[in-house]
Amino acid sequence: MKTTAACGLAAMALACASPVAHAQTGNIQIFGILDQAAEIASHVNAGNGTSATQYRLGLGSVPSRLGFRGSEDLGGGLKAIFTLEGGINLDTGTSGQGSRMWGRQAMVGLQGDWGQVTLGRLYMMRYFAMFDGDFFGAGSQGTGTIDAGIPNARADNAISYRYNPGGAGFSGGVNYSFGRDTVSANNPAAAGCAGESTIAKQCSEYSAMLRYEGSGWAVAASYDKMYGGISTTYGGLTNPDLTDSRAVINGYVKFGKDSKLGWGWLARNNEGSATTPKSNLVWISGETHLSEPVVLTGMLAQIKYKDSANKASVLALRANYWFSKRTTVYVSEQYVANKGTLAVAASTNSSGTGPLPGDSQNALQIGIGHSF
């Protein structure tokens, strides 16, 4: 009986261990970025028509995040993939996307030589299209200060297809959301447009991208459109017949081994704005390795609203010293000159207060970043 019992227990152990052993054909990675900067901002709107200087700690050159990604080889070139990624506010230890645990990405899908199909909370195609010409990315300075939709190009309830073979040649993708934003916080990252209702267009979103990479250059184009929802939807898109669309074309050219020049144009038609729905954002950016550890990045940008005096011009400069491929310290500076009634801020850091309408603002940062 003891022998029989022992054999039975061994068989049960093997049976329980079998799925675990099978799971070892996959892999899981923990990844992240921790970036924090001390900042001083001038000409902050202090109310009652007065300005003041503000000192703060917050987001620097890259949004901080923590994530998990993995894959399992299913055979025949097919893989199951997943990503869970959430933003982090290092200065307070809170979520970078409010009530969302995995506000940057939360997706599962299949991948093969034909591309990948994913479902969940996903990046819109404009996010990938902007990489080529915008060297400041989604940090607290750069084009995201001019158009808040640039660092918030994500959609809930989405399904996406991407073809990205890597290297030279064509790549691209499409994305569709049945309800682009389930969280309501009255800002671009939480617009309160849950969708998935009996009204087909309500709170839906779609985007598409096409990119070509040559030898030392690349160009990418994208188009996306977001449909409105109910009366409380952020941004004035208070019914499904109102839309907010953006068309982007940008690219870069390399010079030598360590320098490149980027450019871009973003045309927006925001029907949620009754007075200035159409705008054009243009920029030119450059990056060069001054020496092996020192990288200089600069950008000139301007947004102009059609049939309006509203205009904002931006100059951004950053110097990075790279101790290694993962750790850097930097100094970053952005100056914004507003015209008309615009009050574009020189930084998106909380409280993110811009200047008085039509006034200028300057933000200086000193920060450190580490990736893992």
Describe the SSE topology:
Blueprint: H1 2-23, E1 26-47, E2 50-58, E3 65-75, E4 78-89, E5 94-95, E6 105-112, E7 115-123, H2 125-129, E8 154-163, E9 169-177, E10 181-187, E11 190-193, E12 205-213, E13 217-227, E14 243-255, E15 259-270, E16 278-289, E17 294-305, E18 311-322, E19 327-339, E20 360-371
Antiparallel strand pairs: 1-2, 1-3, 1-20, 3-4, 4-5, 4-6, 6-7, 7-8, 8-9, 9-12, 10-11, 12-13, 13-14, 14-15, 15-16, 16-17, 17-18, 18-19, 19-20
Summarize the structure.
The chain has 372 residues and is mainly beta. It is 7% helix and 56% strand.
Highlighted features:
372 residues; mainly beta; 16-stranded antiparallel barrel; two-stranded antiparallel ribbon
Describe the protein in words:
The chain is mostly beta strands and 372 residues long. The protein has one domain (29-371): Porin (Beta Barrel), CATH 2.40.160.10. Helix content is 7%, strand content 56%. It has 2 helices and 20 strands. It has helices at residues 2-23, 125-129, and strands at 26-47, 50-58, 65-75, 78-89, 94-95, 105-112, 115-123, 154-163, 169-177, 181-187, 190-193, 205-213, 217-227, 243-255, 259-270, 278-289, 294-305, 311-322, 327-339, 360-371. The strands form 2 sheets. A 16-stranded antiparallel barrel has the order 1-3-4-6-7-8-9-12-13-14-15-16-17-18-19-20. The N and C termini lie far apart (54 Å). Residues 1-23 have low confidence and may be disordered. It comes from Roseateles agri. Residues 1-23 form the signal peptide. Its main location: membrane. Keywords: Cell outer membrane, Ion transport, Membrane, Porin, Signal, Transmembrane, Transmembrane beta strand, Transport. InterPro entries: Gram-neg_bact_OMP, Gram_neg_porin_domain, Porin_dom_sf, Porin_Gram-ve, Porin_Neis.
